[in-house]
Design a protein that fits this description.
Number of helices: 3
Order of helices and strands: HHEHEEE
Strand content: 5-15%
Number of domains: 2
Shape: elongated
Radius of gyration: 33 Å
Number of strands: 4
Strand order of the largest sheet: 1-2-3-4
Length: 150
C-alpha cells in the first residue's frame, strides 16, 4: 500500500511537472510565433522598400531576352537552311517591323512567335547598319537598350 501511495504521489508529481512543462512549451510557442511575426513583418517591409516592381521588371526582362534569343535562333535556322535572310526583315533605313510580320517564315523553325510579357508591347526586328546583322528588340520602355543582335 505504501508503494502504491508513493507511486500515486510520484504520479501526481510527474503530472504536475508535465503541466508545468506544457505551460512552458505553450509560452515558447507564443515566443516563436511573436518572433515569426516580427520576421515576416521585416520581410514584407523590405519587399515594399525594395519595390516589387523592380523584381518583376527583372523577371520580365529575362523573359524578353529568352524570347528574343528564340526569335533570333529561328532567323538563323532559316538562313542556314535557305541561304538567305527572310524577306520580311526591313533594312536599317526602314522602320523596324513586328516579328509577327515574319510569322509565316519563323514558325517553320519555332512553334510560336513569343509575345512580350506586357501585351501592349511587342518585339521588333530589323537589319542593323551592317547588312548581315539582324537586331531584335522590345518596344517596352523598361527594356530600353536591351536587344539581341547576330
Amino acid at each position: 500500500m505504501q508503494s502504491l501511495v508513493l507511486s500515486l504521489a510520484g504520479l501526481r508529481f510527474v503530472m504536475w511537472d508535465l503541466k508545468k512543462i506544457k505551460f512552458n512549451i505553450d509560452k515558447r510557442k507564443g515566443e516563436i510565433i511573436a518572433v515569426a511575426l516580427i520576421f515576416f513583418s521585416l520581410v514584407i517591409a523590405g519587399a515594399v522598400a525594395m519595390g516589387p516592381w523592380r523584381v518583376f521588371e527583372g523577371t520580365r526582362n529575362a523573359t524578353r531576352y529568352n524570347h528574343m534569343e528564340m526569335i533570333m535562333n529561328a532567323v538563323y535556322s532559316h538562313v542556314s537552311l535557305q541561304g538567305e535572310y527572310p524577306d520580311c526583315i526591313p533594312s536599317s533605313q526602314e522602320d523596324p517591323v513586328s516579328v509577327f510580320e515574319c510569322e509565316d517564315i519563323l514558325t517553320n523553325y519555332i512553334t510560336y512567335i513569343p509575345e512580350d510579357p506586357h501585351s501592349q508591347y511587342e518585339y521588333m526586328i530589323e537589319f542593323t547598319d551592317r547588312r548581315d546583322e539582324v537586331r531584335v528588340f522590345s518596344t517596352a520602355p523598361e527594356a530600353e537598350g536591351m536587344e539581341v543582335t547576330h
